[in-house]
# Entry
Amino acid sequence: MELNTTTQLEQGVAPKRDLAISVEDLYMSFGSNTVLKGISFSARKGDVISIIGPSGSGKSTFLRCTNLLEIPDSGNLVINQEKIDFGKKSEKPRKKKRLPVSQKKVDRIRTQLGMVFQHFNLWSHMTVLENIMEAPVHVLKRNKDEVRDMAMDILDKVGIADRANYYPCNLSGGQQQRAAIARALAMEPDVMLFDEPTSALDPELVGEVLQVIRKLADEGRTMIMTTHEMDFAKQVSSQVLFFDNGIIEEQGKPDKIFVTPESKRCREFLSHFMG
Ligand code: ADP
Ligand code: MG
# Structure
């Protein structure tokens, strides 16, 4: 038994109960453009996975598939031991994509994933506090007073409690992104997904957002993040995936990917970030 566990760890195969997310042979196309060409990987609880790679390599599409904002052509996805099977790969891309599960199951799975977008996507007609309270109150049907207290605690944690009653347009980009992170956290998700969370920010505001993400990593939250912040990815990630042209061209610990990458494409890509 012990030997088996060691072998599993050596092979990077997590025991089933420790898996937060796993993806097997995911394909996704837009019309005739196949964007994901067989993505497989798994994250254990507490993992921080960074996805790096050139623009157009499929990073955002992959995160959107994970959150079921896009429906893959084939493959399967397991989130918290709940499996969604999109079927086997067929030669032709399917014309009509249909979710092989009920909307109820999709909703349940989505509440377990907190998504943070590049452009914040806060509701502009609501204050920060209202943005955060909306889903816990209306989707999870939680008590409003309790949710308000929780929201204020989370705002405190991301350092913008004093901006609770501001509208997004009156906040800096860094504050808006921290509000968006707070909104995702308020759903108490099992996994946080970040799609280039600092790419839309002025350089002087990047640090305050990374600091919040680092805090979440230190707390042991499971996170998957696409980013061009290579130093940050190197410091916080447990695993790095290098996407290129719809496949995971290389993956491994940050020290391997950033210091001794095997793939030529990965080396070329990283050379653009050398100061
Ligand atoms: P990345 O995030 O790595 O820059 P994306 O996942 O955004 O890459 O895009 C991968 C490819 O998918 C690109 O060729 C892009 O044009 C295409 N694509 C992404 N979203 C759509 C969409 N909604 N409709 C059609 N093509 C799309
Ligand atoms: Mg993208």
About this structure: Strands lie at 19-30, 33-44, 48-52, 74-79, 82-85, 113-116, 191-195, 222-226, 239-244, 247-252. Confidence is low (pLDDT under 50) at residues 1-11. Residues 25 and 132 are 35 Å apart (CA to CA). Residues 59-60, 196, 226 surround magnesium ion (ligand 2) (CB under 6 Å).
